[in-house]
Design goal:
The structure holds two protein chains of two kinds. Chain A is of the alpha/beta class. Chain A has eight helices and seven strands; from the N terminus they run βααβαβαβαβββααα. The two termini of chain A are 34 Å apart. The chains are: A alpha/beta, B alpha/beta.
């Protein structure tokens, strides 16, 4: 799993609350056996018009937000179905971190296990960041998971909190499989002893 | 939004915050509902009794009690999808499948069906469905589909009447 230590990236504001995983990755795409291939379908019903062409009004399609790697959104981001395809789609599209006043629980855990950092900030700070993004073309944020700080180039500086274990795993690039494989020698010794 | 069948479509103007009002306005726009409309006046095109949530044998028995002796409204297409093969077999042993099909419901093989529109059981844009599934996010049952989540008995009654109706006042046959 990709680790997350520090990241500086272009920010895009998705000024909607209660963004559910059916919007993040609609059900008709949940048919692959790989974790890849979902990025092109991210926010499908918002990104594309009924005829399949890009919706020029959707924020992610604006030319000045191409290459964005930090998503800022409203409260309760990732609610609804627990589909892990949601963080897979977001990560493949290019997002490394998501900032919101709150996240749905399962979605948040899924992010940590897929190398993405979900950051909870107070609603008023999220609002401030969204405003700065809209007022400053090319607005970037620098996120430091070791120091637990977020800064921009025009004076914003704030801290955030992450549970100690989740922070450790993300810094080290460990998902549940990675954690288990740290005991690979012991596992192999056990299997050898049990072999017939 | 959760509303009793005896109630009315909420008015976004009464929302507690600007964000809630915006969300409520969007919801009513997507669902093509007008504030203060009586729920029992809302007509449906489809009824779906199924999904892991609400297709146990007890659910099918309850819905069959409502359906027995009636036929579905001519303006409604309705499906019953048992939650598993065991449930389907038990339902057929008890004759529930005959009750549903005599009433005009399609009796189906177990599967996800219209719970999440990943297969041909899908709503056309604008169609309104009384559904016993667990989520009604925009587009869940098909792009532009309008999903109302109700219990199996309420879905059965709505299929018969062609609009939502209070199951507590139902005349069982």
């Amino acid at each position: 799993m990709q680790s997350f230590k520090k990241h500086t990236g272009l920010v895009v504001p998705l000024d909607r609350a209660n963004v559910d995983t059916d919007q993040i990755i609609p059900k008709q795409f949940l048919k692959r056996i790989e974790r890849t291939g979902f990025g092109e379908f991210l926010f499908f019903d918002w990104r594309y018009l009924a005829d399949g062409t890009p919706n020029p009004d959707f924020i992610l399609n604006k030319s000045y937000y191409q290459g964005a790697s930090v998503l800022v959104a409203g409260k309760n981001f990732g609610c609804g179905s627990s589909r892990e395809h949601a963080p897979w789609a977001l990560a493949e599209y290019g997002f490394r971190a998501i900032i919101a006043p709150s996240f749905a629980d399962i979605f948040s855990n899924n992010c940590f296990k897929n190398g993405m950092l979900p950051i909870v900030l107070p609603e008023v700070v999220v609002g401030e960041i969204m405003q700065r993004t809209q007022e400053n073309e090319g607005y970037k944020l620098s996120i430091d998971l070791e120091a637990l700080t977020i800064t921009d180039e025009i004076g914003l500086s704030t801290t955030f909190a992450v549970s100690e274990f989740q922070r450790y795993c993300l810094l080290e690039g460990l998902d549940d499989i990675g954690l288990t494989l740290r005991h690979e020698d012991a596992i192999k010794a056990y299997e050898d002893a049990r072999a017939r | 939004m959760v509303v009793p069948v005896s109630g009315r479509v909420p008015d976004p103007a009464e929302a507690k915050s600007a964000a809630d009002r915006q969300a409520a306005e969007r919801a009513l726009e997507y669902m093509a509902l007008t504030p203060q409309t009586s729920i029992e006046e809302i007509a449906i095109n489809r009824a779906f009794i199924g999904s892991c949530t609400n297709a146990r044998i007890e659910d099918l028995r309850a819905a069959a009690r409502v359906v027995k002796g009636y036929r579905i409204s001519s303006s409604v297409t309705a499906l019953v999808v048992p939650g598993s093969y065991d449930v389907k077999q038990e339902a057929e042993r008890e004759g529930l499948d005959r009750i549903f099909s005599d009433a005009g419901f399609e009796w189906r093989e177990p599967g996800c069906s219209m719970c999440l529109g990943m297969n041909p059981d899908i709503l056309e844009p604008g169609e309104r469905c009384a559904s016993t599934s667990n989520r009604n996010f925009e587009g869940r049952q098909g792009r532009g589909g309008r999903t109302h989540l109700v219990s199996p008995m309420m879905a059965a009654a709505a299929a018969i009447k062609g609009h939502f109706t209070d199951i507590r006042k139902w005349e069982f046959k």
